[in-house]
């Protein structure tokens, strides 16, 4: 994997803006995809206890935090070539007993949600930039969990 380029950072930044521009709808898309693949997520996220409720502000707030953290990974990759996660992110995910397969579920749902959010602006490079940023942040969180 080569260095993370300015162009890749720009692809992530512009699609992050598109994601936030329709946050409510995009967070519904995201958590529906998560629940399809991982019904157990219902018991992990307090705001999913009654399924996906578009009117629950906690759901959108969480999606914004999660996608924003991956966007931050893109910025870190571009500026310092590596990603470090806050210690708190390690402890939150230890507490919730998050597993490796769940990281793959979240990645797939995130990439599909970005694809929907950007519509005809989607392309493989954009997808790969998000995937690279996600993989780096996932590795940093797992390191913080170890
Ligand atoms: C790169 C991947 C991930 C990122 C960037 C991420 C990001 C975050 C962030 C920013 C928080 C909030 C921490 C806070 O409140 O300060 C959080 C909490 C949490 N994350 Fe993750 N996460 C990731 C992967 C996962 C995975 C794979 C799962 C399991 C399905 C998961 C489950 C949770 C849960 C259950 C919480 C607590 C939510 C609550 O407050 O109810 N996360 N995550």
From TrEMBL:
UniProt cross-references to InterPro entries, sorted A to Z: Globin (IPR000971), Globin-like_sf (IPR009050), Globin/Proto (IPR012292), Leghaemoglobin-like (IPR001032)
Protein localization: Cytoplasm, Cytosol; Nucleus
Primary localisation category: cytoplasm
Gene Ontology MF annotations: heme binding; metal ion binding; oxygen binding; oxygen carrier activity
Superkingdom field: Eukaryota
All copies of domain Globin, residue ranges: 3-146
Record-linked Pfam families: Globin
Any single Gene Ontology cellular-component annotation: cytosol
Key words, A-Z: Heme, Iron, Metal-binding, Nitration, Nitrogen fixation, Nucleus, Oxygen transport, Transport
Subunit details: Monomer.
Family label: Belongs to the plant globin family.
Name of the protein: Globin domain-containing protein
Provenance organism: Vigna angularis var. angularis
Gene behind the chain: Vigan.08G120800
């Amino acid at each position: 994997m080569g260095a993370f380029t300015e162009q890749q950072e720009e692809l992530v930044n512009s699609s992050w803006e598109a994601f936030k521009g329709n946050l409510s709808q995009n967070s519904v898309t995201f958590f529906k995809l998560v629940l399809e693949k991982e019904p157990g997520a219902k018991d992990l996220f307090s705001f999913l206890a009654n399924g996906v409720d578009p009117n629950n502000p906690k759901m959108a707030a969480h999606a914004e935090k999660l996608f924003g953290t991956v966007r931050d990974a893109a910025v870190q990759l571009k500026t310092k070539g590596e990603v470090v996660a806050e210690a708190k992110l390690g402890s939150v995910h230890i507490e919730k007993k998050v597993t490796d397969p769940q990281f793959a579920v979240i990645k797939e749902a995130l990439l599909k949600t970005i694809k929907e959010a950007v519509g005809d602006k989607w392309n493989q490079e954009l997808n790969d930039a998000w995937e690279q940023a996600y993989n780096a942040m996932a590795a940093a969180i797992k390191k913080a969990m170890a």
